[in-house]
């Protein structure tokens, strides 16, 4: 039995906790900056930590085998240092193909490169190893309210554009799509996984490879890998069958090149429009076929046998939802009215709607529904 610390309390962290509690005997504790009554009500252990106090952070981590981080910012660097000092065996960094990892190479990945360098340093000089989980784009980016509905990207302003509905490729509500194309019109693709399945895969890996000394530095997996045209077709089909989404109106794609996106990104940076720049960076990453978002099936190195389903690995999933099924279910419930937004990919400062859920969920709210068993 392992002792696991999950840093952060967003939806992804809670899904990981949920599947650890359902599928393993492992003990786990959430590390958070503030008391979180919503989690405590579930009888989950929650420890308040101060990421700016290295000694107390290391003390808290004494006896922990594995740290699973869902936090970003400099706090994560502090967490790595404290985990190494506390002789934690394995560190799973935040990432999960998120904004930092998928920032295009042409724009730079300072934060991420620094984090990997720090993890590599500790892997070479201490007993702490690390493994990155790469899962492509979260399904929730295309659902009502975006990832904000799972409290993902709601707390860190740097990520707020990523958490909003309709900010990546397709805006289901407005029926619009911004589709990157290559000069040769070769099909771009994107790997996709729901947040719930990301958590399930992390837990499946922990269940299977108890000897974490044999873990690779990266596990790659996704539930589906879709080309841009497959994505638009699926979204159009779901929209056509969803009452709240003007059924019958097709999604109208606007095609854009990497160069146009780079130009708009430079303008957004100059205008100090961080949200728009981040949103554009994500599109550039797709246009550049970034390996965290678009990886061939052959590079998946998490054995199919331990996963509920891996794209291309066999029959249709029984426990993971294919994107179309997930999307139809997500949009089948009544949706809130849109509110004004701050981010778009057109290069203009305004004019796009957002349906951020950040105002609708309290910090203590959980993404698991009233009864977590609904997820099993
Ligand atoms: N693949 C994708 O499409 C995709 C999209 C979005 C996110 N992601 C990934 O999902 C994970 C979570 O993303 P996120 O956007 O929710 O991260 P986030 O906004 O940084 O929040 C994650 C957690 O970190 C803590 N936190 C927030 N700001 C902090 C700060 N300044 N200092 C210390 N702790 C802080 C919060 O926990 P407490 O308040 O409890 O301390 C929060 O629950 C990341 O790994 C991200 O890369 C992936």
- Assess the beta-strand content as a share of residues: 15-25%
Q: Give the tally of β-strands.
A: 16
How many domains would you count in the coordinates? 1
The helix content, as a percent range, equals 25-40%
Q: How far from one another are the termini?
A: 22 Å
H/I helix tally: 11
Largest sheet: 6 strands, parallel
What's the overall average pLDDT, rounded? 81
| Heteromolecules bound | NADP nicotinamide-adenine-dinucleotide phosphate
> C-alpha Rg, in Å?
20 Å
Low-confidence stretches are 298-318, 338-344, 346-366, 369-376
CA-based shape: globular
Spatial order of strands in the largest sheet: 3-2-1-4-5-6
Order of helices and strands: EHEHEHEHEHEEEHEEEHEEHEHHHEE
Supply the helix-strand structural class: alpha/beta
Domain NmrA-like: 38-238
Organism: Knufia obscura
Keywords: NADP, Oxidoreductase
InterPro entries: NAD(P)-bd_dom_sf, NmrA-like, NmrA/Isoflavone_reductase-like
